[in-house]
Description:
The protein folds into 4 domains: about 60 residues, no CATH class; about 110 residues, Band 7 domain (Tetrahydropterin Synthase, Chain A, 2-Layer Sandwich); about 50 residues; about 40 residues, no CATH class. Helix content is about 55%, strand content about 20%. The protein has 8 helices and 8 strands. The relative contact order is 0.07.
Amino acid sequence: MRKSPIILIVIIALVLLGLSSIFIVDERERALVLRFGRVVNIEEEPGLAFKMPVFDEVVRYDDRILSIDVQPLEVTPLDDRRLVVDAFARYRIADLNQFRQAVGVGGIPVAEDRLDRILRAETREVLGSVSSRDILSSDRAALMLRIRNSAIAEAQALGVNVIDVRLKATDLPQANLEATFDRMKAEREREATDERARGNEAAQRVRAQADRTVVELVSDANREAEIIRGEADAERNAIFAEAYGADQEFFEFYRSLSAYENALQGGNSSLILSPDSEFFNYLKSPTGKASQ
């Protein structure tokens, strides 16, 4: 009976010892087995793995493709036009043993800090060897490839494989940006002034052509009106002449009535004539005939 507790304790100890000797490697990671800080095993396949209880330590690292944002840096291309470059890179831990030796217990944060310095140095060197026009053009894909290839060799010491490098933004420094904006604004204002001047010139030509057309139309209309008036006057005179020849007495009577109508209108005007004036021949005649 006294041996039962001891056996139970031994069984529990053996179970705990067995559990502490196994660990699980996730499919998204790889693991290092360290014994007193020295790498004794590398587990790269997912599943169950074994280690020595108590003495061994398991350190896990991400096996996926990781991304790092490079701190923005200012570069000076060949044409001395300074640019602020913002980039990022994708990398993967290639050699776990080398990676552990390079960064120690600092892990990924230390690796990314060193990788950031490598990428900044390579970016400054590559972009400093070309003009700003090349950096801002569609040909900069070749420049990013050069940065990546140069960074690969430097990153091997970290046990890291640089997969890709991309430029997110390439801008002018704030002071240069304001100067460039002012220059572009001045150019646009000059172009706007030129456009307005050309528009005013075109408008003057249109107005001059319109004024000329108006003068020509009015002149033609006046000429046609004078012709029509002349023809009408000639026709009227012909009618009057025909009427005068047909009945001279009636014609004189009609002309006198027209003269009375025009002369004897209301208003402030006065007409002073002699009583025996010929103007009143038809008014004085009881038969409506002119006095002889």
